[in-house]
Amino acid sequence: MTRTLAVSLAASVSFAAVAPAYADASPELIAAAKKEGQLTVIALPHDWCGYGAVIAGFKAKYGLTINELNPDAGSGDEVEAIKANKGNTGPQAPDVIDVGLSFGPTAKEQGLIQPYKVSTWATIPDAAKDKDGYWYGDYYGVLAFEVNKDIVKDSPKDWPDLLKSDYANSVALAGDPRTANQAIQGVYAAGLSAAKGDASKAAAEGLKFFGELQKKGNFVPVVGKIASLTQGATPIIIRWDYNALADRDNGKGTAIDVVVPQTGVVAGVYVQAISAYAPHPNAAKLWMEYLYSDEGQLGWLKGYCHPIRFNDLAANKKIPAELLAKLPPAEAYAKAVFPTLDEQNAAKAEITKGWDSVVGAQVK
């Protein structure tokens, strides 16, 4: 990703409006997908980005069965699932993946994904897509603190606060930082805060920060989820704001606070791609058409993700006012930083390699 994208996404509306209406997927594609009859997805928990409703909407619209693999998998696991099932046309072979930005170009280089340009291609910012259509941004958010207020009375306001004795045995990542993009970005964000915005030092400082968090007994080596949060096992989770905001609405009686830190505000773009070995390639293409339609994009926004076509939808007044009212105020995102692909790749390599030796916590 480029810094240009960072500026554009942070703005309320900065991309030129394109045509306000788009045709549905072609009858030929719909027919071909229905003939295949099934789509296999991976790593799509229903409480992530509104995916539960998005999946239901796709099934209702086209009548296809969706086979859902390992909803708790990380981006690295998704790529490995393609590799492991190259010659497999059975139910364990994913047709599509939804991964962190840095995983898209890597998967392309390894020949694991195939190109496809959706009908709304022109409304996806150039900086958020592969020019040949191998991968394309779908949504973005920022790393935030999700806090169980029934247990933690004073929410942390910034990364250094997490080191306080008040938060002993309380802080968790939402994934394994050796494989999961969300967790890797969490380490990076903490480091960017410690490095005062110096991206070249963020990974090292992030590892050092979590090493200190582990040493103080504040870090919990468990993958943080809504269940562990409400049960008190991980009363503070570092995770994408859209997941935390969805939990706030669905906490089932638990009071949840969502805090965007004062420094080290890291935004992350996720990308979609179709497996080069997809057993159901037409169903995969139809899935992409749905995700990048107005309906699909608004489905993600209802799950508190900023869809990649957000500015286009806003320019064409397609976002319901009541939906906009539920989103956090724009000033919470004013300091958001969108790491470049080079920065992400360098940080991912350093964090995944150094976690065991510097931090030494086996996240499970």
Automatic annotation (TrEMBL):
GO CC field: outer membrane-bounded periplasmic space
GO BP, one annotated term: thiamine transport
Segment forming the signal sequence: 1-23
Keywords on record: Signal
Pfam families on file: SBP_bac_6
GO molecular function, one term: thiamine pyrophosphate binding
Annotated protein name in UniProt: ABC transporter substrate-binding protein
